């Protein structure tokens, strides 16, 4: 098919903007494609899945992401955004080719599976009909981009100036549109003067808003992304390990986190203690980083991440144990209402969801688990068809011996606690996300069972104070 001439030539002839292809139209690619169209570019999204291409072409997003359907429909209608399964066609019609395919965890290993990235880059490089820049956005182990750069120069047709740069993406699910249109920073790794100029043109709108641009080499760009995720994961596991200490000492971790957060060097975000992190990114990205760090001999990084992962996975086990304990040592044939299935609020994503993980584990122990989530019912049903699902919070609470809050949806936080209590058989509740106003829920009749550790600690304190009084020894203040 007839393609474009190089952007440099067209630009010289008055063309104002490079044309863009986006390879892979999952969370990252679909959002990036729609955002690029919103920024005024002609965009072609490419996916190997014809059903996905058909849905996107009809303005339908196959997952829940606030604001994205509106943006997609706006630009499919404006003609600025279209989708195809034909990668060669998209490559011929574009100047900047964003690689947005997934890098899942390999089966049976912590390493990232790079098959999709390798294939996408290889196919674009081979299909180039004029000069172009291939821009990696996928999260990859450090060293991947340099290897792909060599591949691009080997595979690009003779006489074509083909470059590869890395421009990691930091979007959060649930806030993907805002994060893409107004990023915190733009990282450009391994870009030549020409490709940097092209990418600055692509990101002209956020740059004009003051978004900082960090220009660096390829390994730094790759590592910025995984280090950002590793830091966020570490912050969550830090507060979760402190929450264990709080439970034992009778302190309130939420108040503690508020107090810590007032220190601008620490900040309040990602200090919510609870069930820990999940989703399609943080868990697999820290594991891939752990794997790569070990390969490179960076053992302290690997052992830190191992600890972060262990603390995080331990949170799920802890809630399961708390539920068993709250029901007197067994959940067999007890009814448990689970509020939340998504890995976090404002998404229907249940990939590595701590909430579903806990629900499924309790189900396997013989509990009658009824799950409700405002958005993730279909995705949860697909992953765990054997669990029971209710259509509302009330369905989940009806007849329950115990209610678990496992995703902090606003609907749960703002629920009428007294009304909900009227449906439950027992008003035992475990707030796995520390998101409820405990005093208000207690006055509405709900009982928050104490953790076994806290009960133990209190008992020890009582025994200790009796002994202390008997012996008349003054208590020693903790340092
Ligand atoms: C993350 C990164 O934030 C984003 O920059 C990157 O591009 C992709 O990975 P996302 O997976 O959408 O984004 O989720 P995020 O908002 O980071 O939350 C991850 C998990 O951490 C969720 O399960 C959430 O519930 C949990 N979390 C978050 C906590 O347990 N406590 C907190 O304080 C914050």
Q: What does this protein structure show overall?
A:
The protein has 479 residues and is of the alpha/beta class. The chain folds into three domains: 13-216, Rossmann fold (3-Layer(aba) Sandwich), CATH 3.40.50.720; 217-315, N-(1-d-carboxylethyl)-l-norvaline Dehydrogenase, domain 2 (Orthogonal Bundle); 327-448, NAD(P)-binding Rossmann-like Domain (Rossmann fold), CATH 3.40.50. Helices cover 48% and strands 11% of the residues. The protein contains 21 helices and 13 strands. The protein has a six-stranded parallel β-sheet, with helices on both faces. The chain has a five-stranded parallel β-sheet with strand order 11-10-9-12-13. Helix 6 (115-127) runs parallel beside helix 7 and helix 11 (218-249) packs parallel to helix 14 (299-326). It is elongated. The relative contact order is 0.08. The structure holds uridine-5'-diphosphate-xylopyranose (UDX). Uridine-5'-diphosphate-xylopyranose binds next to helix 11. Uridine-5'-diphosphate-xylopyranose is lined by residues 169-173, 229, 232, 236, 270-272, 274, 276-279, 281-282, 343-344.
């Amino acid at each position: 098919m007839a393609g474009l001439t190089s952007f440099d030539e067209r630009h010289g002839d008055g063309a104002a903007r490079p044309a863009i292809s986006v390879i892979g139209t999952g969370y990252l690619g679909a959002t990036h494609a729609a955002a690029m169209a919103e920024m005024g570019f002609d965009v072609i999204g490419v996916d190997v899945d014809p059903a996905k291409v058909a849905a996107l072409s009809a303005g339908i997003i196959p997952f829940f992401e606030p604001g994205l359907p509106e943006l997609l429909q706006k630009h499919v209608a404006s003609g600025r955004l279209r989708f195809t399964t034909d990668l060669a066609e998209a490559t011929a019609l574009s100047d900047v080719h964003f690689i947005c395919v997934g890098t899942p965890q390999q089966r049976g290993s912590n390493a990232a599976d790079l098959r999709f990235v390798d294939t996408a880059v290889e196919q674009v490089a081979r299909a180039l009909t004029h000069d172009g820049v291939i821009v990696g956005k996928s999260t990859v182990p450090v060293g991947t981009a340099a290897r792909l750069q060599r591949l691009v120069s080997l595979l690009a047709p003779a006489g074509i100036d083909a470059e590869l740069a890395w421009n990691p993406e930091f979007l959060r699910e649930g806030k993907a549109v805002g994060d893409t249109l107004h990023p915190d920073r733009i990282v450009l790794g391994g870009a030549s003067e020409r490709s940097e100029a092209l990418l600055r043109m692509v990101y002209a709108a956020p740059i004009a808003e003051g978004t900082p641009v960090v220009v660096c080499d390829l390994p730094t760009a790759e590592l910025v992304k995984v280090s950002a995720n590793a830091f966020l994961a570490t912050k969550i596991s830090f507060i979760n390990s402190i929450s264990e200490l709080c439970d034992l000492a009778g302190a309130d971790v939420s108040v503690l986190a508020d107090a810590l957060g007032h220190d601008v060097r620490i900040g309040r975000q990602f200090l919510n203690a609870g069930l820990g992190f999940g989703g399609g990114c943080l868990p697999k990205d820290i594991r891939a980083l752990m794997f790569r760090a070990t390969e490179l001999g960076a053992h302290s990084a690997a052992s830190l991440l191992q600890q972060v992962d262990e603390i995080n996975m331990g949170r799920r086990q802890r809630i399961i144990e708390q539920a068993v304990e709250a029901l007197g040592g067994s959940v067999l044939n007890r009814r448990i209402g689970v509020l939340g299935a998504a890995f976090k609020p404002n998404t229907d994503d249940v990939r590595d969801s701590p909430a579903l993980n806990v629900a499924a584990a309790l189900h396997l122990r013989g509990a009658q688990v009824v799950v409700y989530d405002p958005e993730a019912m279909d995705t949860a049903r697909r992953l765990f068809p054997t669990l029971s699902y209710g259509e509302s919070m009330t369905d989940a609470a009806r007849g329950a011996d115990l209610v678990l809050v496992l995703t902090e949806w606003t609907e749960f936080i703002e629920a009428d606690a007294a009304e909900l209590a009227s449906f439950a058989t027992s008003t035992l509740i475990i707030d796995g996300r520390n998101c409820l106003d405990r005093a208000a829920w207690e006055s509405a009749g709900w009982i928050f069972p104490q953790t076994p550790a806290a009960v133990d600690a209190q008992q020890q304190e009582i025994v200790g104070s009796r002994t202390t009084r008997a012996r008349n020894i003054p208590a020693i203040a903790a340092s």
